Every structure is written in structure tokens, then in C-alpha cells.
Amino acid sequence: MSTAIKTREIQYTAPDGSHLIGYFAAPESETPVPGIIIGPEWWGRNEYTEQRARELAEHGYAALAIDMYGDKKVTTTAAQAYEWMMQTFEDLDTVTDRANAGLQTLAAQPEVNSEKLAAVGFCYGGKVVLDLARSGAPLKATATFHGTLAPKAPAQKGNIQGEVLVLHGELDSMVTLEDVANFEKEMQAAEVKHEVVVLKDAKHGFSNPLADERAKANGVDLGYNSEAEKQGLAKMYALLERTLK
Fold it and tell me: Domain Dienelactone hydrolase spans what residues (predicted)?
């Protein structure tokens, strides 16, 4: 029997004044449950991200798919996604400020146990949640799927509060194995408990069933891999179970 869940949109504001609209999903529960923010792919806070929020709710977590572009803007065009993503990099604090606004909004919901918070990110959202963790946010776990690993600034010892899990596709041409090696050095230098899993035959976007369609339409090197998705989700849920329950 599947867990009964509830969903709603939540409006909130970033420090720069951006109007953000998150998608919240939580299990029907008499007591507060752990909360997880979801950093979206560069396409924006779309149906894929919302589906991930609902899945987390079905597993007993409250989840907020955060809006990084404002007014829940979404696209299926790589050029537009790139433009919006790069706008969030123009000011060094935009990414962490908007992500932190989402985390605070999540923590303030009555369904959420604000002592037990984590973050999951996909693609661009992987960078979002990693930079949030690097900033010292109170996250007990951070997990990324085909995430961008290069930091805004390298993690300092003591900043990252919880465990980090990176799920990386072996054939990812956008985030190289050299990037992965540099990330591991960063985590080791900061003495962060972390795990990097390189998933066989997986490209960038391996967790998204629409990756092949988007690749064809935009001429970008993406690819869905159901086995890698399955393995990655199992790793993620094991991490969340260990750190939040």
C-alpha cells in the first residue's frame, strides 16, 4: 500500500528579491518528518523535479523542489536553460542565497522536523546543493545525480555538516573524471565523509527518462540509463535512511 501524500506550491522570496515558487510534497503524518530540498536540473523546477518530490514523500520525507530561476520558469531548450543558469552565476552569492531561502522555507513548514534536513540535486541542481553544503548549511546529507562538482569556493574544514554522496555517470562528457578526482581531493582536504559512485555506461542526465529526447532536440550529450537511475536512487535512499531516520 502506497503512502498517502499531500502536495502544494509554496511562494517565498530570495535575498535579492526574486519571487520563487517551490513545489512541496509530504506524507500524511501526525508528527513532523525529515525534510529534503531538491535542486532542479538546468531546465528549471519542472514536472521531473516535482515527481522526485512526490517519490520522496512516498518514502516518508517532506520534500521541496526549489525554484532557482524565479516564477517557476522552465524550458526544454538548452540555450534558454544555459542563459538562465549563467544568470545565477553572475553574482557569487545568488546560488547559495536562493538555495538557502528554499531550505529555510522547507524547515518552516509544520510537516517538517527542522532538525533533520538534507539536500538532493540533479545536474545544475547538484552544484546548487553542493555549494549550499559548502556554505555551512545544516544538512545531514547531500546527494547529487550527474551534478556539476566544481565549487564556488572549495569546502573548508568544518563547513560541510553531513555526509556527501556523488552519483556520476562513467560516460558523462559534461563533468569529467578529472572533475570527479578534483572533487574527491576537495572533500579529503576538508575531511568530509563522502562517497563517489561512478555508474557504468551512464551519461550526463542518466536519471531523467526524458534525457534522450532532450539530447536529440538540443544536440547535447545526455542519455537516460534506467539501471544507473535505479542504482543511484538505492544509494540515495540508503544515505537518507542512515542520516535522517
Answer: 22-242
